[in-house]
Amino acid sequence: MARGDGRLSHDLDPNDKGPQDACGVFGVWAPGEDVAKLTYFGLYALQHRGQESAGIATSDGHSILVYKDMGLVSQVFDEGALNSLRGHIAVGHTRYSTTGGSTWENAQPTLGGSDHGTVALAHNGNLINTLALREMVQDRLRGRTSRGELARGNTSDTALVTTLLAEDPDRSIEDAAMKVLPLIEGAFCFVFMNEGTLYAARDAYGVRPLALGRLERGWVVASETAALQTIGASVIREVEPGELIAIDEDGLRSRKFAEPKPKGCVFEFVYLARPDAVIRDRVVHEARVEMGRILAREHPVDADMVIGVPESGVPAATGYAQESGIPYAQGFVKNAYVGRTFIQPSQTLRQLGIRLKLNPLEHAIRGKRIVVIDDSIVRGNTQRAQVRMLREAGAAEIHVRISSPPIQWPCFYGIDFASRAELVAAGLEVEEIRASIGADSLGYISKDGMVAATRQPPTELCTACFTGSYPIALPEDGKVGKHVLETLPIEVRTGHDSSIEHTAEDRKDAEGVSVGLSGGAQNALLHP
């Protein structure tokens, strides 16, 4: 399905799914402010992190309302919906599914009820001990009725966490969080609330970014600093790894639930985050430009012009041009109005060369030796289409340069790459990939070069998708993956006191095919 933010060229071939973003989370505590609209604009700034569904929950101190649906932020909300979401606390979410299918039932924020009130929770990341959490939920609910979304068909790891936080009869939400958070394994940034308090928590490894901001009359947390700046909040700091923040009428308080072991995702710098985001004091755009400079030093070539694949390849292309002295020029024209479409071209139309996203600027590239900069290669179909378009437009030579190393392993921490069996670099050497995409030359940045561009300590970055070295240990039984809760029986008790079992036979994906853990992901667990 085509992405709606226009950043990627990976959907030149609709069958070629590129790296899909982690989700975006946003939370605000601000009495006297229109928190629903602040959250709306904050989510707009985070739209690139997920385009499958969007949702906002608000509280007026007495009750929580939630509005969520499938689609982009601009498609889900209108003026009337936002005006109905009243209160001084809000939690928002934009989703790309990494655990649980892309369905309305799995849209966030998720809700859970308890004796201590209602919990609304939004999650960015991916948990790897989902089955253990599922067992905790079943033990907690033994003989009792669930008041959460699991009983209504939610199959996400987020719903499990929401249930564990909400359905602890002996603890407040905050105390339940201090007990539950240390038991959660994987990558997570949680933004959640009950009727009176906004909470934010980040896993001990800090895999995904989460920033804290200040409004004149309140506080804001968001996946990226750009979302804080969009609504006029000043950036205070990052939420620390292993930290739980609570914000209410008494102010802001911080508690540590785990010792920090920083392993931030390097792919946030390569592609995921907005260029204007700041992660650990490094402006993402500057890191990408530096990656281009390093690429030029590591893989020089005689050429007439450097072009970047819009939009994610442009900063690195700028850096490559600066370092090499080869002029930078626009080589592709992007259709800015192609959004999320459910109409896919048939095979016959694809063979005609349908170009929904990009078209080569023929007069600029005819007869030229071109360096093409892109952020990554997943299956290779996209780059093959790019090279073919440039050849047809008359390019004399095409030299492809990639601002990340070869992606050889799936991510289990919040990015939905293709399975390992589908990753072209998992089975082919660089020269074989070059021949496959039809380029005259191909060069990837080195891992050390990529890391150096981020200006982060190498020991504090996760590079698992390039190295296969996963900093958070994966379950030995291989029971992890996007559809792990949809392919195994799960029993909950509904409000009608009847048990429900979902199995692989009765849980189908959108195409009506039983879903399960892909062979590539299993291979990554069995042969790291």
UniProtKB/TrEMBL annotation:
It is an enzyme of class 2 (transferase). GO terms for biological process: 'de novo' IMP biosynthetic process; purine nucleobase biosynthetic process. The active site is at C23. [4Fe-4S] cluster binds at C265, C411, C462, C465. Its EC number is 2.4.2.14. Pathway: Purine metabolism; IMP biosynthesis via de novo pathway; N(1)-(5-phospho-D-ribosyl)glycinamide from 5-phospho-alpha-D-ribose 1-diphosphate: step 1/2. Residues 23-250 form the Glutamine amidotransferase type-2 domain. Keywords: 4Fe-4S, Glutamine amidotransferase, Glycosyltransferase, Iron, Iron-sulfur, Magnesium, Metal-binding, Purine biosynthesis, Transferase. It catalyses: 5-phospho-beta-D-ribosylamine + L-glutamate + diphosphate = 5-phospho-alpha-D-ribose 1-diphosphate + L-glutamine + H2O. Residues 495-511 have a biased composition (Basic and acidic residues). InterPro entries: GATase_2_dom, Ntn_hydrolases_N, PRTase-like, PRTase_dom, PurF, PurF_N. GO terms for molecular function: 4 iron, 4 sulfur cluster binding; amidophosphoribosyltransferase activity; magnesium ion binding. Mg(2+) binds at S312, D374, D375. SUPFAM superfamilies: N-terminal nucleophile aminohydrolases (Ntn hydrolases), PRTase-like. Residues 495-516 are annotated as: Disordered. Its cofactor is Mg(2+); [4Fe-4S] cluster. Binds 1 Mg(2+) ion per subunit. Catalyzes the formation of phosphoribosylamine from phosphoribosylpyrophosphate (PRPP) and glutamine. In the C-terminal section; belongs to the purine/pyrimidine phosphoribosyltransferase family. HAMAP family: PurF. This is Amidophosphoribosyltransferase. It comes from Leekyejoonella antrihumi.
